Please model this.
Amino acid sequence: MPVQCSSCGERRAMLKRPKTGHSLCKECFFWAFEEEVHQTIVAAQLFKPGETVGIGASGGKDSTVLAHVMKVLNERYNYGLKLILISVDEGITGYRDDSLETVKRNQQQYDLPLKIVSYEELYGWTMDAIVKQVGLKNNCTFCGVFRRQALDRGALMLKVDKICTGHNADDVAETVLMNVLRGDIARLRRCTAISTASEGEGVVPRCKPLKYAYEKEIVLYAYFKKLDYFSTECIYSPNAYRGYARTFLKDLESVRPSTIMDIIHSGENLSVREGVKMPVQGTCSRCGYISSQALCKSCVLLEGLNRGLPKLGIGKHHRLHDKILTKQPLTEAEERKLRKSVDF
Amino acid sequence: MESPLPLQSLRVGGAELLFDGVKEHQVTLPSQSEPWDMKQLLVWIQRNLLKERPELFVQGDSVRPGILVLINDADWELMGELEYQLQDQDNVVFISTLHGG
Ligand SMILES: [Zn+2]
Ligand SMILES: [Zn+2]
Ligand SMILES: [Zn+2]
Model:
């Protein structure tokens, strides 16, 4: 028994929106989805006319939908933006090869310029080489830290004014949950922000136009529009803790779809009691990136890699980090501790 | 006794690693006395197609939350979900949103 679209009443409904419970046809869904992203952009004043905006493009569904919608809205509403796709090549054999091919096709399909920055050129290390050193279990520490900076460095190189990323509502809710679970008050306070102001020399402001878009709708938007995206799991084992948080969230969502928005709402409205110590944001003395320590996380990780001490920068060895970075000699026991490839 | 029920196609996007890396499956469901529904299809998939870690695909008698199901390109939430009775040449798609972005 086909259900009619509750918006136009003419065509057959093709999906039930998790956000509103409405049953919509494809055309009405496309329109509603795009208009909501537009509303998000306008309400938060994410862009100014004339700006060059880099779109973090991974070839995955989120960034592919983001690129498509940004292109559509930029034309429909004359944002006056110059859009560029920025892609990071981590150097994971077989994994990025395919997704980069996807991004290259997107470049042509959407007629947007593309810049690929590789870990090799930024850090001197590919992810494959890193995994050889640190083992499979901890590569995501590197993945996450390096990727975030790679996008910034790429953005600086291209002189873009802003970066937008494909983080969706499910991602934001998951991050709120993760920060609660970890007791990371500073991140908890920042993570729901739709945009970050420029936080220093080496950092380009970022924003998340899909912040209020549900993952289900992003997937269906891509599917119904037949967008070309790449879907395969990262061949390196994902962060198990985050995996649990994600599963938990999906289980809750299946009982109560508004869970996602509710968690984001909670995160946005939390206030931190006075007297709670917050890390002071400074900049890295080596590369200029924002950091609460003298050296940023990626410089610490790099130092460890380059010196054959892969545990440096992972886990709780702060005392040792300081020692190494100030070039004090290590005891034999300390060296051993840092040299073992990491597993916990 | 109803006759065997051929599906037009059964696809598993983003979850193909659990299916021996195969994305698109040609499926003909064996004949049985009552009509096939989605609930039975999931059991059949588990017995015949799913190669590893079934808990990443099914949960209870439904799919795991985070896996979207489309029947003839429409969201199965509009089609009765587990109760939907499969028809000759139906097109069933599972899309996992659980990994990667
Ligand atoms: Zn409609
Ligand atoms: Zn990874
Ligand atoms: Zn640094």
